[in-house]
Design brief:
D-Amino Acid Oxidase, Chain A, domain 2; FAD/NAD(P)-binding domain; 2 domains; six-stranded mixed sheet; binds flavin-adenine dinucleotide
Length: 348
């Protein structure tokens, strides 16, 4: 197989790695436009907290995710994947009751623990608003910007990477150019390409902060776990945390807004009032590529032959991306059949 991958955010990184693992000839082109992957926190969580349910196919996605990122680590000699417990602040008694009911038969969550119990296991836990904590195992984060850069360096060393702007009109001559297929991994870039056909991938705009203590003293934010209070803090480097994130439709500019920064900081102060005051050292904005049914678009483009699509990774790209990158590659050589649930035709 000889394939061209267009876009090297998370989707293009995963699918080009999967292709090279299979011994195929693979080349990657990226325009260098701002990407969702370069600002994402890279978190993964087997639970959805709104209804306290397991996310879509949590176990197969986590298994494939772990194997895939460990393979990148072995190939590139760096560590990217970090498992970290998630501590969810329980907002009220009804939520605690529901959490405990769900914990009876969940492999991911433990029953609600009091602050005293939590402090024994996590000495840097902050006091909860009064209803204790729910503990989640199986979560963590991926150092996505680092992975993408390291993979790009490897592709460049091997002469497999080109900087370039691609549009769907170029798909027509894929076979003349010697490609068996082209895989469109342009995220929201595909939605902005008027020649790409009307696939309904929407941009969900997210703002995210990097914070550190302002030096005026006080306990530090937790290092031993991800703290979730509706929003969340994620320790990524000593003395530095990501704080996120916002979700916004109908807006695609990449200008950070003071309103969102203040909103995130105020949420943090309410959740962790006794910790050192944090100051913002970075404020990033990105566009998540999201489909209307929140499932990815994986497979043959419905109107452009010789073009495949790997897009719509949405808010959980780190978790779901690896499994679908492998299934997409297997489908190209008839070793897997992609289910209708991810068929791009549904987004026409
Ligand atoms: C603030 C924020 C926080 C997030 N946090 C998380 C998180 O904690 N966990 C999680 O799983 N997900 C998170 N996400 C979502 C995650 O970022 C996405 O699921 C994922 O990164 C999408 O990857 P992608 O490769 O499809 O798109 P992108 O990362 O946007 O990559 C698209 C690539 O295509 C290139 N490109 C675009 N147009 C062209 C063109 N015409 N020609 C050539 N190349 C082109 C771009 O340069 C870019 O490199 C977050 C997103 C945001 C914005």
């Amino acid at each position: 197989m000889r394939i061209l991958v267009v876009g090297q955010g998370l989707a293009g990184t995963l699918v080009s790695h999967a292709a090279l693992q299979r011994g195929w000839d693979c080349h990657v082109m990226d325009s260098g436009q701002p990407s969702a992957s370069s600002v994402a926190a890279g978190m993964f969580n087997p639970m959805s907290f709104r209804r306290i349910i397991e996310v879509w196919d949590a176990r197969p996605h986590i298994d494939s995710m772990t194997a895939t990122y460990r393979a990148f680590e072995a190939d590139l000699g760096e560590s990217f994947l970090h498992f970290l417990p998630i501590l969810k602040q329980i907002p009220n008694a009804e939520y605690a009751e529901e959490w405990n009911r769900k914990a009876l038969d969940s492999p991911w969550i433990e029953p609600v623990r009091s602050d005293a119990e939590v402090l024994q296991r996590f000495p840097d836990a902050v006091p909860s608003p009064g209803h204790g904590y729910g503990l989640v195992q199986g979560g963590g984060w991926l150092d996505l910007p680092r992975l993408i850069q390291a993979w790009r360096d490897r592709l460049m060393e091997e002469g497999r990477f080109t900087v370039g702007q691609w549009s769907a009109t170029q798909a027509q001559k894929a076979n003349d150019d010697g490609w068996d297929t082209i895989i469109d991994c342009r995220g929201c870039g595909a939605a902005l390409d008027s020649t790409a056909g009307p696939l309904d991938i929407r941009a969900n705009r997210g703002e995210i902060l990097t914070v550190k203590p302002d030096g005026s003293g006080g306990a530090s934010l937790p290092d031993t776990h991800i703290l979730n209070f509706g929003k969340w803090t994620l320790p990524t480097q000593p003395g530095s945390w990501r704080l996120g994130a916002s979700y916004e439709w109908n807006r695609i500019d990449l200008d950070p807004t003071p309103e969102t920064r203040d909103f995130l900081m105020a949420s943090l102060r309410r959740a962790a009032p006794n910790t050192a005051t944090s100051m913002t050292v970075r404020h990033d904005v990105g566009l998540r590529p999201v489909s209307k049914d929140r499932r990815p678009a994986v497979g043959l483009h419905p109107t452009i032959s010789s073009l495949h699509v790997f897009n719509g990774l949405g808010t959980r790209g780190v978790l779901i991306g690896p499994r679908w990158s492998h299934l997409l590659c297997d489908s190209l050589v008839g070793k897997a059949q992609l289910p209708d649930i991810v068929n791009p035709v549904r987004l026409l």
